[in-house]
Amino acid sequence: MKMSIREAINQTLHQEMARDERVIVMGEDVASDQGGVYGITDGLPAKFGLHRVIDTPITESAIVGAAGGAALTGLRPVAELMFVDFLGVCLDQILNQIAKFRYMFGGQARTPVVIRTMIGAGAGTGPQHSQILYPLLAAIPGIKVVTPANAADAKGLLTTAIRDDDPVIFCEHKALYMDECEVPEGEYLLPFGQARTAVSGSDITIVGMSRTAVLAEEAAGVLAQRGISAEVIDLRTLSPLDEGTVLESLAKTGRLVVVDEANPYCSMASEIAGLAVERGFDTLDAPVKRVTSPHTPVPATPCLELEYVPSVDKIIAAVEETLAY
Amino acid sequence: MDISPEKLADAYRLMKTIREFEERMRSEYQQGKLPGFIHIYRNQEAIAVAACLDMTNADYIASTHRGHGHCIAKGCEIEAMLLELACKEDGLCNGKGGSMHIADMSKGMLGANAIVGGGPPIAAGAALTAKTLGNGAVSLAFIGDGAADQGTVAESLNLAVVLQLPMIFMFENNRYAEFTKSPKPDGRIAERAGAYGMPSEVVDGSDFFAMYDACQRAIKRGREGGGPTAIEALCNRYYGHFEGDAQAYRDQDELAEERTASDPIPRFLADPRAAVLTVDKIAEIDAAIFAEIDRGFEVTYAAADPTPDKLYTDVYIHYEGRLR
After folding, report:
1. Domains and CATH numbers, chain A
2. Kindly report the CA angle at B70 between B65 and B76, in degrees rounded to 5?
3. From A70, A96, A239, residue closest to B321, measured CB to CB
């Protein structure tokens, strides 16, 4: 059935809440009539009741921390951190608490919490509502970070996230919510740590994640018309990271462009470039090229925001530069 | 006040265990035999014991950096605790937590916490579990007077009221936030908690009986769906912020006076309600405590350190990525 990412997430929450009564949803506005800012939780309160779909005050440390504490004691909360930018007011509960419970308690703890959060530019939402920030999260041992690029993956990865016994941060790109694709009916799980080869090719590898995987796929279409065969890898999960698929593709193509909407320093693009240099050096025929956002905040004005984010044109330019090396 | 002779004996045993456990630990630490930072709970023992005496393993506590007393009161075993404080393989947390992260899930002890104010949101989550499952459990967060100023505490107080969680906020006001004397008058913390819309009271934290009475009421309220309660327990921090802090910043005469006046153990024994604890009974309890502590140290010093491969275990339950 064809549906949007927004609908796929909503359907997955319905399915998992029906399947397991320990699953609860909590966050700001999640039980409101319109199902939160983007209608993600639409219909959940009516079906599962307000004791399982819990509206909270605007209180991110308490939302995330309480979701962690509830997970530690037997529930499987899906908490919403409305925008990932709000990480700034609750990072301790993720970084020092939830991520470390299992390790610092010597394996006693089980913290099956999912933190759903909205990432990315493209909606003109400005410096404090448009960031990516997943590299910050992927750098923390003890949590998993998931970045679906389409509705089918969103369903498969969210189902896996809710059933996973480790803490998972599920990053939803706000510019992709309405993107539609075929989504499997019924129960659908995708394993973590398995990238998706979105397009097969032989001349160059383009790695993306979340929205940049979509852009890379578009770029590959344009490149194909110019006789360039690009392979597009969508990482799908950033932690765990499927290094094997990237290295295998690189071994085939010898050239690599990584596209990441994060700011450039310590980005996923840097991580993949490092991987290629450290473990794929012999297969490289050209320097690795990174296409990222610049080292600036996200501007509110649409014309500058457009300049800020990676684009199909920027990817094509990087590919051509790499092929010309 | 409803307290059985068995519970009285338990209360004494637990307070005395905390006291002697920590005094011995302090001495070993001073000799360089224990690693890390330790924060001693002396003179606050009545608070932890009163808070946990009517709890079962199904009830939860979230502790602080000054957490040894909370652990013992909640039922953690002395030997397993000592093994953890010495960071040994068989410690409660396999040596990976140490003093400031000691936890025992089987006892509902959700961890000491080295982030000041880190625990209350977690305790609120445990209370949410209890409320959602409707199992009658309660969750208690120990919070220092310093931590009381953290935003996480304010958020947790508010959330507990909004969601009517079965939660107890146990503020231990020892009047010193690390090296700095509290600028707040006694009672201000309870007043603040009360302003969020929950019953709150100020109790003398060195008076076990007063504390137990307040805790019984708070726990009953939580179990019966009456929502959260805040207790501000006034107490004295006998030693410094951490072991090795000589408290040069304090008025030494005042400190000396407080140390004696706020010692909960003699005060407990002098109370007519504790009269059933005869001299012989006390001697018997004491002897068992000292034997347990001796045995714990003996086992601890003979115990193995974790092997190097343990660096990589228990980061995740299951992980398809690389850890190194």
Report:
1. 2-182 (3.40.50.970), 196-324 (3.40.50.920)
2. 115
3. A239
**Cβ–Cβ gap B162/A61 under 8 Å:** no
Domains of chain B: 5-312 (3.40.50.970)
Q: Which amino acid makes up residue B44?
A: Q
Q: Does residue B315 sit at the A interface (CB-CB below 8 Å)?
A: yes
ipTM of the complex, rounded to two decimals: 0.96
CB A58 within 8 A of CB B159: no
Query: Per the CB < 8 Å rule, is A69 touching B124?
Result: yes
pLDDT digits (tens, 9 = 90+) for B24-63: 999 999 999 999 899 999 999 999 999 999 999 999 999 9
* Strands A237-239 vs B60-62: parallel, antiparallel or unpaired: unpaired
CB-based contact (8 Å) between B164 and chain A? no
Residue B156 tokens, joined:
């947790």
Encode B131-152: b = buried (16+ Cβ within 10 Å), e = exposed: bbeeeebbbbbbbbbbbbbbeb
- C-alpha A123/C-alpha A305 separation (Å) is 9
Which residues in A lie closer than 8 A to residue B125 (C-beta atoms)?
Answer: 65-73, 77
Whether A62 and B105 lie within 8 Å, measured CB to CB: no
